[in-house]
């Protein structure tokens, strides 16, 4: 079978962001664009780590075509063993699991996560290393460097590989295996959680769930786990058939986009006990109780505090980590448990070393990501099962569990305001203006909020000592409050400015105020320091989560 060497030109814009390379579909469809980036990934691998590969994606538009192209590139580059998800599907958490379970050299996951799909939507390519986690910054820097200087790629001339059934093919020196990832993933979940107990509660009619797969990748996994293994009603699943355009919706599990699920959970009577949703590639989760939203930061804290209620974590946890903009709720749990708590930059890749080094058991982010040492990615269904397991054990509602948590640890009121598709120059200037004031801020009292420190977050990885600078501006008001601002690294158009605002209320204080009302004074302080509306002409954020 012939392998051709094709001339290409370097692309300077193939710089992976927070989570892989994300661009508009049409951008990826430019001649040689995808091939260039994938060849750069292959070239950046050590020869000893260029033999076995996992490949799959979230099923979005262009997934099928990109998989066939990457298969030809992998064969052309001499990979000996290539595992591909059946139908070309792999959720991000399942991909992480399979890389680890089959001890592969790495995996390519095709997804733009929660970004919309379809011909006018977004596409993305992520590379995960042999640990099963997203490539760390030193690897993505190598990929970027290579992509910006590449002049040719190697591609095999071969027929498209049928992906409908699980089977394997020998093509030249490469073995291509089409595999079903659902069973492996469901088996792991069954090891971690008390399926027997959950199944019993479902059977007794004591527990009900509504799970929204948002027409994205988790539908088949959710059907196997909730319906086949746990006996939940078929009707518990919403939008469970993956679609290339996600049903023309935005597969982002938050209050702005999971409206159908919210309507179900806000019914005055008959709402299920747990409402949950996942994103395009299945690594995010949103947790709802009856008329009750659990912030991702609170969810992480509650799971950490309740770890021993769940079989997989009976022996307790060794430590936790959260991304810098995530609220400090989990820090309070860690302090009480006497375990370490790490603060990392935004991006799941920063948890990798802490997990590999056995320093943490749980980690999470405000961006609807929660996970544990069971794999090296955040895991949407894992978080949902954790909550289900908790509800089954404690026989309390989601709201009761969270409120009991606040009564013990206090509450970190939290909101994130996103200003999307801003003119990049204006957004960068806003951040630069605040950056310029940082050193003069400590000691300043704005409407009763006293700034104790202000910096641009810099992270020194405690395992390998690597430094990641300029990870977001932090204005800290002691234990009382924080304001954080940073530019998103996952958008594909203009700049997205994220403003994160949190304020702590101790256990004896006001714990059930509406979030935006409680945070109004601090939001006003924020507009004083960072006049987003004034400088952008916007009247408010595009999305509040
Ligand atoms: C990715 C990363 C997360 C990050 C999120 C938002 O999630 O894996 O670690 O928190 O993007 O990043 P940003 O604020 O830079 O847009 P996903 O689910 O999109 O892969």
Model description:
This protein has 545 residues and is of the alpha/beta class. The chain has 17 helices and 28 strands. The chain has a 7-stranded mixed β-sheet, sandwiched between helices. Strands 22-25-26-27-19-28 form a 6-stranded antiparallel β-sheet. A 5-stranded mixed β-sheet has the order 11-10-12-13-14, with helices on both faces. It is globular, with a radius of gyration of 23 Å. The mean pLDDT is 95. Bound molecules: 1,6-di-O-phosphono-alpha-D-glucopyranose. 1,6-di-O-phosphono-alpha-D-glucopyranose (G16) binds at residues 18-19, 113-114, 279, 283-284, 323, 346-348, 365, 367, 369, 488-490, 498.
Sum this structure up briefly.
The protein has 545 residues and is an alpha/beta fold.
Write the layout of secondary structure elements.
Layout: E1 3-7, E2 21-24, H1 25-28, H2 33-43, E3 52-57, H3 63-76, E4 81-89, H4 92-101, E5 106-110, E6 122-129, H5 137-147, E7 152-156, E8 168-171, E9 174-179, H6 181-192, H7 195-204, E10 209-212, H8 218-229, E11 237-238, H9 259-265, E12 274-277, E13 286-289, E14 292-294, H10 296-305, E15 319-323, H11 329-337, E16 340-344, H12 352-356, E17 362-365, E18 369-372, H13 380-394, H14 398-409, E19 411-422, H15 424-437, E20 445-446, E21 449-450, E22 453-456, E23 459-460, E24 467-468, E25 473-477, E26 481-487, E27 495-505, H16 515-529, H17 532-536, E28 543-544
Parallel strand pairs: 3-4, 3-5, 4-9, 10-11, 10-12, 15-16, 15-17
Antiparallel strand pairs: 1-7, 2-6, 5-6, 8-9, 12-13, 13-14, 17-18, 19-27, 19-28, 20-21, 22-25, 23-24, 25-26, 26-27
Helix pairs in contact: 2-3, 2-5, 4-6, 6-8, 7-13, 10-11
Bound molecules: 1,6-di-O-phosphono-alpha-D-glucopyranose.
């Amino acid at each position: 079978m012939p392998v051709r060497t094709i001339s290409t030109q370097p692309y300077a814009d193939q710089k992976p962001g927070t989570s892989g390379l994300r661009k508009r579909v049409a951008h990826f469809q430019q001649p040689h664009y995808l091939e260039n980036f994938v060849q750069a990934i292959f070239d950046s691998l050590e020869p000893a780590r260029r033999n076995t590969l996992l490949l799959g994606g979230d099923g979005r538009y262009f997934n099928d075509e990109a998989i066939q192209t990457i298969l030809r590139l992998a064969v052309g580059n001499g990979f000996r063993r290539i595992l591909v998800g059946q139908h070309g599907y792999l959720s991000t958490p399942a991909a992480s699991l399979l890389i680890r379970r089959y001890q592969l050299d790495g995996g390519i996951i095709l997804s733009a996560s929660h970004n919309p799909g379809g011909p006018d939507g977004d596409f993305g390519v992520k590379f995960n290393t042999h640990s099963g986690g997203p490539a760390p910054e030193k690897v993505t820097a190598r990929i970027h460097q290579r992509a910006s200087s590449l002049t040719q790629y190697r591609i095999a001339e071969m027929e498209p590989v049928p992906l409908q059934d699980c089977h394997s093919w020998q093509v030249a020196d490469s073995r291509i295996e089409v595999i079903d990832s659902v069973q492996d993933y469901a088996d792991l979940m069954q090891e971690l959680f008390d399926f027997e107990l959950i199944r019993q509660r479902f059977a007794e009619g004591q527990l009900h769930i509504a799970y929204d797969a948002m027409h994205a990748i988790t539908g088949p996994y959710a059907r196997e786990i909730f319906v086949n293994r746990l006996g939940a009603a078929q009707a518990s699943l919403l939008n469970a058939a993956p679609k290339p355009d996600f049903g023309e919706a935005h597969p982002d599990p938050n209050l702005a986009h999971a409206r159908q699920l919210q309507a179900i959970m806000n019914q005055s009577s008959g709402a299920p006990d747990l409402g949950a949703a996942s994103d395009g590639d299945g690594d995010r989760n949103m947790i709802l109780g009856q008329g009750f939203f659990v912030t991702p930061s609170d969810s992480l804290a509650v799971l950490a505090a309740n770890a021993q209620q769940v079989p997989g974590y009976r022996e307790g946890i060794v430590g936790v980590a959260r991304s810098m903009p995530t609220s400090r709720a989990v820090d309070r749990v860690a302090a009480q448990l006497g375990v370490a708590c790490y603060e990392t930059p935004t991006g799941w890749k920063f948890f990798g070393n802490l997990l590999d080094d056995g320093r943490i058991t749980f980690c999470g982010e405000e961006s609807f990501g929660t996970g544990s040492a069971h794999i090296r990615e955040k895991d949407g269904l894992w978080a949902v099962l954790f909550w289900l397991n908790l509800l089954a054990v404690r026989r309390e509602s989601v709201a009761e569990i969270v409120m009991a948590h606040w009564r013990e640890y206090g509450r970190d009121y939290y909101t994130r305001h996103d200003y999307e598709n801003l003119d990049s120059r204006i957004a960068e200037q806003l951040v630069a203006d605040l950056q310029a004031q940082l050193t003069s801020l400590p000691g300043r009292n704005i409407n009763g909020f006293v700034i104790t420190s202000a910096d641009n977050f810099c992270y020194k990885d405690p395992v390998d000592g690597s430094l990641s600078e300029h990870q977001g501006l932090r204005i800290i008001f002691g234990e009382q409050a924080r304001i954080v601002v940073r530019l998103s690294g996952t958008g594909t158009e203009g700049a997205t400015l994220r403003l994160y605002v949190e304020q702590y209320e101790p256990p004896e204080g006001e714990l059930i105020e509406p979030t935006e009302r409680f945070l109004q004074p601090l939001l006003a302080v924020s507009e004083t320091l960072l006049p987003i509306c004034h400088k952008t002409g916007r009247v408010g954020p595009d999305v509040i989560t």
